[in-house]
Amino acid sequence: MSQSYNRGLIEDFSRWREFSAGMWAWIFHKFTGWVLVGYLFTHIAVLSTALSGAAAYTNTIQALESLLVVRILEVGLLAVAVFHILNGLRLLFVDLGVGLEAQDKSFYASLILTGVIVVASVPTFLSGVSI
Amino acid sequence: MAERYTSFEPGGRRWLWQRLTAAFLVVVLAFHFFLLHFVNHADEVTFALSQARMEQLTYFSLMILFLVTATFHGVNGVYNALVNQGLSGTRKTAVKAILGLASVLLIVQGVRTALAWAGGVPI
């Protein structure tokens, strides 16, 4: 039997104080998705310097990686990617009928696990950069 | 009748393909991050190291599949998000065409780059 959930209009962001966990999960998944697809196009553009020769590619990547702001943006990208992966797994399980009753808890778990993985990765992502 | 809380059109296959590519991307995106940030470090990247990986057919074909599935998943996600926001009619058709063209260009550029590293298809 179908159930009806009256969530109201999620696109009305002025209601954000009334949003439930599942609505925040939907917003975060959309936001991280937009960031990731934007990054995909940027990533291929940067990697395309390989078409200009070995030196152009190596110099471009190493110049970018020497910048602290790039490393910080990479940590942000990791956060976005990890959340999208974990919440994506949550969505796949819910679509398969597993864990729907605990979908709010699995959203909180996705957030916490994302935070732990990102914090633990900061030393690796900032290694070798001069401040 | 229950309302439909989904970004996808009823009866379409976009939902299914979004899920199938998601299942693949969950594994390969995690592998990609782990390999290029934890096994190898980003500041140690050189053309020669990228070339050494791309010259292996397994890695080359995995990256091409990664490019194609990530492009589909990302662009399909954007398209369905826009439809969900009310995109319709001529604008919907135009957006579909633009996103389709952008996808083709991205994949072509990605494949050209992979071929530049590998020096051709590594068979």
Distance between the termini of chain A: 59 Å
Number of domains of chain A: 1
Main sheet: strands, sense, barrel of chain A? none
What is the count of DSSP helices of chain A, taking H or I runs of 4+ residues?
Answer: 4
Range of helix content of chain B? over 70%
**End-to-end C-alpha gap of chain B:** 55 Å
The string of secondary-structure elements of chain A, in order, is HHHH
Please tell me what the overall shape of chain B is: elongated
pLDDT under 50 segments of chain A (min length 5)? none
Strand content of chain B: under 5%
What's the β-strand tally of chain A? 0
From the 3D coordinates, which CATH architecture of chain A would you assign? Up-down Bundle
Order of helices and strands of chain B: HHHH
SS-derived structural category of chain A: mainly alpha
Strand content range of chain A: under 5%
CATH fold name of chain A: 3 helical TM bundles of succinate and fumarate reductases
Q: Which spans of chain B have pLDDT < 50 for at least 5 consecutive residues?
A: none
Shape assignment of chain A = elongated
* CA radius of gyration of chain B: 18 Å
What do you see in this structure?
The complex is a heterodimer of chains A (131) and B (123). Chain A is mainly α and 131 residues long. Chain A has one domain: Fumarate reductase/succinate dehydrogenase, transmembrane subunit (3 helical TM bundles of succinate and fumarate reductases, Up-down Bundle), CATH 1.20.1300.10. Helix content of chain A is 69%, strand content 0%. Chain A contains four helices and no strands. In chain A, helix 3 runs antiparallel to helix 4. Chain A is elongated. Chain A starts with 20 loop residues before the first helix and ends in a 5-residue tail after the last helix. Chain B is mainly α. Chain B has one domain. In chain B, 75% of the residues lie in helices and 0% in strands. The longest helix of chain B has 30 residues, at 89-118. The mean pLDDT of chain B is 91. Classes of the chains: A mainly alpha (131), B mainly alpha (123). The A-B interface holds A 2-5, 7, 11, 30, 33-34, 36-37, 40-41, 44-45, 47-48, 50-51, 53-55, 57-58, 61-62, 65-66, 71, 74, 78, 81, 85, 88-89, 91-92, 95, 121, 124-125, 127-129 and B 1-3, 5, 19, 22-23, 25-26, 29-30, 33, 37-38, 41-43, 45-48, 50-51, 67, 70-71, 74-75, 77-78, 81, 85, 102, 106, 109-110, 112-113, 116-117. Chain B: This is Succinate dehydrogenase. Chain B: One of its GO terms (cellular component) is membrane. Chain B: The chain crosses the membrane at residues 20-39, 59-82, 94-118.
